TrEMBL record:
Species annotation: Paenibacillus enshidis
Domain of life: Bacteria
Protein name: HAD hydrolase family protein
InterPro entries on file: HAD-like_sf, HAD_sf
PANTHER family xref list: 5-AMINO-6-(5-PHOSPHO-D-RIBITYLAMINO)URACIL PHOSPHATASE YBJI-RELATED, PHOSPHOSERINE PHOSPHATASE
Pfam families: Hydrolase_3
Length: 245
């Protein structure tokens, strides 16, 4: 841990409690790490503007890996973005409408775009998209977008993923499912692992100098306490103690 330069953490089920709350003193810990030259990165499927709204006081002191890796910002500056082409996402939107019971969400850089007929889902979706623009014809929207997300109110995203989206889009795009209600479609090879590699290259940080907190299936050197037991925060505290803070 003495050579640590970058800490990255997922949000849901890792940093956020199961009530969706951030640890009350997280900002101070991040600022202390920043003083030591250790970058703290938030990795999330949420868009950049939502993450910035969640960390208003320190958004210029932090790194955001947003949109599951589609957009990366470092201390207020976007340093990487992988945008879907309208010629690709417009047919996807029509496919969602014609073949599923999901709600298509076009993840633009400054707003989520959703068909107006789904406005009844606004309260729930605002948790993930702090800026939503409702439109009459979603498949006619042209904007800079890094991802198409499908929200499944009936919690059947994994079935649709296996039977519909993976066969139709998995060869040409990065397609992932999560929490039984989401499917994300991004450009090929876009994921959080690729984002960590890009971030390391941009900041001159080797993988041996990184620490990642995640609940995804992977090999791990350490195990922390659960999110409700503030596992990430306690590890941050330990790192600060090692560095004499």
């Amino acid at each position: 841990m003495n050579n640590l330069k970058l800490i990255a953490s997922d949000m849901d089920h890792i940093l956020l409690t199961e009530k969706g709350e951030l640890p009350s003193n997280l900002d101070q810990y991040i600022l202390e790490l920043d003083k030591l030259g250790i970058v703290f990165a938030i990795a999330s499927r949420r868009p950049l503007y939502t993450l910035e709204d969640m960390f208003p006081e320190i958004k210029d002191k932090i790194c955001f890996i947003s949109g599951s890796g589609g957009i990366i910002s470092y201390k207020g500056e976007v340093i990487f973005k992988s945008l879907l082409k309208p010629v690709d996402y417009q047919p996807m939107i029509r496919f969602v409408e014609d073949n599923t019971d999901g709600v298509a969400i076009l993840s633009g850089l400054d707003s989520a775009y959703i068909a107006r007929k789904y406005k009844g889902n606004e309260t729930f979706l605002k948790t993930f998209y702090s800026n939503i623009t409702f439109v009459e014809e979603l498949d006619q929207v042209i904007t800079e977008a890094d991802k198409l997300t499908i929200y499944f109110p009936n919690k059947n995203s994994k079935q649709y993923f296996e039977e519909t989206f993976k066969p139709n889009y998995g060869h040409d795009f990065s397609v992932t499912a999560g929490d039984a209600i989401w499917i994300d479609i991004m450009n090929h090879e876009i994921n959080r692992g690729k984002a960590m590699k890009v971030l390391g290259e941009q900041l001159g940080i080797d993988s041996e100098q990184m620490m990642v907190f995640s609940d995804m299936e992977q090999y791990a050197s350490y195990a922390t306490g659960s999110n409700d037991h503030l596992g990430v925060l306690k590890m941050m505290e330990k790192i600060l103690e090692i560095h004499g803070k």
